[in-house]
UniProtKB/TrEMBL annotation:
<dbReference type="InterPro" id="IPR050540">
    <property type="entry name" value="F-actin_Monoox_Mical"/>
</dbReference>
<feature type="coiled-coil region">
    <location>
        <begin position="23"/>
        <end position="50"/>
    </location>
</feature>
<dbReference type="InterPro" id="IPR022735">
    <property type="entry name" value="bMERB_dom"/>
</dbReference>
<keyword id="KW-0560">Oxidoreductase</keyword>
<keyword id="KW-0472">Membrane</keyword>
<keyword id="KW-0175">Coiled coil</keyword>
<protein>
    <submittedName>
        <fullName>MICA1 monooxygenase</fullName>
    </submittedName>
</protein>
<feature type="domain" description="BMERB">
    <location>
        <begin position="13"/>
        <end position="154"/>
    </location>
</feature>
<dbReference type="GO" id="GO:0004497">
    <property type="term" value="F:monooxygenase activity"/>
</dbReference>
<dbReference type="Pfam" id="PF12130">
    <property type="entry name" value="bMERB_dom"/>
</dbReference>
<keyword id="KW-0503">Monooxygenase</keyword>
Length: 154
């Protein structure tokens, strides 16, 4: 292997490892969000019961419970938004991996000398190129969705 091929191989492994680590971190955070959702629901149920059984409860206490309930709803909405962002990031990671694999296949075909390529090779090269273009377009859509979401939150 020439030096440039070893360097490309090493960089590809590093990029793949980065994607893997990022995917693990996202998965951990999604699990944490799920646990927090359950905790918030339990707290919300308790507050709702307190509000429904408010016989003889001072108005200040009722207001405090309502504020707590509204805070829980806001916290849950923030978690749902974060979960949505993480799901988009998962899709993006999948598409990055798919793009990398297609890129590797395409490089194999493109590294062959043109005179040695069979018609099947040329057809396969065109199909991979079309798939690669489709993946890039899907990634572009995800980026557009993220940008729209960011602008709507502002």
């Amino acid at each position: 292997y020439p030096t440039w091929k070893r360097t490309l191989t090493r960089r590809a492994r590093e990029a793949q490892m980065k994607r893997f680590c990022r995917a693990q971190a996202i998965q951990r955070r999604l699990e944490e969000i799920e646990v927090t959702f359950r905790e918030l629901e339990q707290q919300g149920i308790k507050l709702e019961k307190l509000l429904r059984d408010e016989d003889g409860t001072p108005a200040d206490q009722k207001t405090q419970w309502m504020n707590q309930l509204l805070y829980l709803v806001q916290k849950k909405n923030n978690l749902m938004s974060e979960e949505s962002d993480l799901m988009i990031a998962v899709q993006e990671l999948k598409l990055e991996e798919q793009q990398w694999q297609l890129d590797q296949k395409l490089r194999c075909y493109m590294n062959r000398e043109e005179s040695l390529k069979t018609p099947e090779d040329r057809k396969a090269e065109q199909e991979i190129l079309a798939q690669l273009l489709e993946v890039v377009n899907k990634r572009n859509v995800l980026i557009h969705i993220q940008e729209e979401k960011r602008l709507s939150e502002l």
